[in-house]
Amino acid sequence: MGRNAPIKIEQCTLNKFFPELPKPKEHSLVKKLGQINSLSVNEKYTLRMKHDGTIYIKEEYCLSCGRRLVKNGFNERIAILADGLGKHEFQVHRKRCPYCGEIKPDYSKLAPKNGNYHESYKRRTRQHYMEGLMPSQIQRVFRIDFGIEISLTTIVNWIEVVREPLREMFSTTPVPSSGYWGYDEIHLRINKERMYAIDTVDVVTRFVPIAKISANMGRKAGREVLMEGRKNCQLWINGIVKDCTTNLGGLFRTRSFKHIIQQNCLTHVKWIVSAHVKAFAGMSKRSNKPLPKEWRWLRDRFYALINTKHESDAYIHLEIIRNTIERLKGKRIKELYTALKQLEGWLPKIIAHQRNPFIPTTNNLLESYHKKYTYYPSFKRSMMTI
Question: Which range marks the domain in which residue 68 is found?
Fold first, then answer.
């Protein structure tokens, strides 16, 4: 007697005898399996879920080369969901192709309804990093704003994926330059060693042409930074904004740099003048206390010179300050003469922006960039503007 074919028996319900009764609801597990099995990914690999909750790839052959896929063990996966939906944990039965390598389908469609996969967190992480936040700060942002804990290594890996290609692109892409730069130096301590950060920024395009950490500072180090921008990056420098530093010496009197228009940051000029007026009034130059009211008029006369809009007005205010100082008396009158002498020497660098509208009056743009060093606690405790 031959083998009998199996008979498929369908379990009958009361609906067969009483059609007016509502149909029974589908079991929740069966319904969930149906939803998972109906999903397919963009790579054309189909995901399935077993009764124990394990996710596996349905296909047995590689869709690229046709070779048979080999089972490659199990892994616990975590889908980090946006909009405060927490994490979705599941187990994956991996497969790999002997020729093409491991099959990595898109697991994002396993997220619950209205739950975005962690691509949104990747985007947020990279955006926060570009805005200047460090990985540890990004981790705290996610914990405070979204109530979710993401490991530090995961955040670093998300950043590294896009940082390496960006480095290659930046090294081969010409930097847009207007020819007008900001220049600043700060000293900091790295691994208990004193180092110097020498930075530049294009005051018009806001790109950073050259940024360098050097063991030394001064004329030689400044020349290396500026020459690197001119020769290696082929950028021409028309004007430069800097603080009132004298570390560069006579660099801008040499043949390679004498054409550059110099502008002193007016904010730094005001700080220096205010310090001399405080010393004349009997205060400490570094005092944070406000200047006494009886001497504020004197400080305002110095500020009037710094804030002039026309070159002729600057020379007029310079003579007004000179006549004012000659009529004053005091034990520390030398402080005012020192301030006057400095203003006379800096006057071409104070009014340079009046002759060229592309030169800004302050170096605040680069100073704000230096604030990003404070995101590193070790830098914040040891950095200081020079």
Answer: 27-116
